[in-house]
Input
Amino acid sequence: MRIGKISENVLKRSVLKIIENKKSNNVSAAVTADCAYFANEDSYVTSSVNTFTEDCEDAAYFAMHSAANNLYLSGARPVMASLGIVLGIDHDESVLKHIMKNARLAADELGITIAGGHTEVSDTVTKPVITVCVTGSSSREPQKAEAKSGDYIIMTKYAGIIGSSILAKECREKLSERLPMHLIEKASGFSNMVSVKKDYEIGSMSGARCFHDVSGGGIFAALWEMSVITSKGLDVDIKKIPLKQETIEITNNLMINPYQLLSGGSLLMLTDDPKKVLEAYKNAGIPASVIGRITDNNDKIIRNEDEIRFLDKPQMDEIHKLGNLPA
Output
């Protein structure tokens, strides 16, 4: 199998079919949303898991925020996290300490507790494997995806921002040969846009619905997933997908596709009143753009002026090329 998320068909065939339990109040995350949840008297307990396998300095920080983002989109409040860390035999204690400091930084920003977890060393891994499970609670059942033909697709922030931050830090020396240092430094700071909590709150209050975060596989993967979740087609103008200039420069330099690059911190949503939603984001100082429409068929169309292409199934995230970029 390819690196990254397993394919949709494999997921359904070898995971969902096995864990489905129609007699339980527990709901599998992959069936309806990115969170699993179950009813607990007058509230709902929610959980989300995220694994980060790239050897970068902010790995634990991103894993924590990514898992928490999924809870926010279900209307839940994150409460605690547990971590699973597997290190290789060549890693020393300083690596573990750095991972935990980054996890603690994210936990403090999220206002949650790291309740525990498991740490071990194995000769089967060469890069740290960090798995985060964030648990939270909600007073209501997570909403199911509802889409209507003609709905506008709105995207907050920018495509590839978290991947850009990682590349700027991990490929700093190579990039500095061709790009100005101030551009690299600015991209390094994109990590502060990783949370979608405020994005969700503003979109929800302004009447948007069917929220989906842009994460592994980039904006192309997120659009595919939104189409599958809603059982609708979509028509998107690639030129309307917002990209930071720093992302364009960095991905061009490293021959990376920015539309398939890790994009945590960006949020997709649907609305039939885009003016109201965009005005709410403008007032909050959060960039937001209409990038396309929902259609009444299953076609997933990406337009580039007069050129039309059909969106492919999610591909390997470009961030996984990090260790194999040309010198």
About this structure: Residues 93-110 form the longest helix (18 residues). The chain has two domains: 20-138, 152-324.
